[in-house]
Design brief:
With 183 residues, the protein is mainly alpha-helical. It folds into three domains: 5-59; 74-133; 144-183, no CATH class. Helix content is 56%, strand content 0%. It has helices at residues 10-25, 30-37, 41-54, 56-59, 76-88, 103-114, 120-129, 146-166, 177-180. α1 (10-25) crosses α3 (41-54) and α2 (30-37) packs across α3. It is elongated and about 85 Å long.
Length: 183
């Protein structure tokens, strides 16, 4: 069984290609080189053709995959604008009926402002790239007002939770049971 060059990393492929060129330059035949390096004759011939057409530059490793920014749904200007809106405003201030920034809220803003329908997965990818995460308090604030927290938990939060349920929205934080008991 011959070695498959595709299973090697780019540097390994380049080293094998250089060996092929060296051996071919010494006058060895393609079947002989294929046997020595443990590749197929077709791989040897393809590498030699590329080398003859463009020299060492033609067999060097090249960057792989998409280029930065290629195939994005939003332009970089639109990304900046949307990110800025999320930082500076709430969805309600932009005349949307969302209380918090959710993926659905981002989708609605992108549709209205940029006429671009983004999938929820794409929105998640953008939010992650911009450094937005679901929020969960790690520790208590120093200037905490337990009475105000208790009032909020017992009056405002249930309304937000009910509204989110009606709108089939996500609430991107979670209250720990201890906090809900008024601790």
């Amino acid at each position: 069984m011959k070695q498959d060059m595709r299973s090697l990393n780019q540097q390994g492929q380049y080293e094998l290609r250089k060996q092929i060129v060296l051996l071919k330059s010494q006058g060895r035949s393609s079947p002989e080189i294929a046997e020595i390096i443990d590749l197929t004759r077709q791989s040897v011939n393809a590498t030699w053709r590329r080398y003859k057409a463009g020299g060492l530059e033609a067999i060097k490793p090249k960057t792989r995959g998409r280029r930065h920014g290629q195939h994005r749904r939003l332009s970089s200007e639109q990304e900046k604008k949307l990110k800025s809106l999320m930082i500076d405003k709430t969805p309600e201030q932009l005349s949307f009926k969302f209380a918090l920034w959710t993926r659905a809220a981002v989708k609605a803003v992108a549709m209205k402002r940029f006429k671009t329908d983004l999938s929820l997965r794409t929105i998640s990818w953008y939010l992650s790239r911009w450094g937005f995460t679901t929020q969960k308090p790690i520790k208590r604030a120093n200037e905490q007002n337990p009475e105000a927290i208790s009032n909020w938990l017992n009056s405002a939060y249930p309304l937000i939770k009910e509204r989110a349920k009606k709108e089939k929205a996500e609430i991107n934080f979670q209250l720990k049971p201890r906090a809900m008991r008024g601790a």
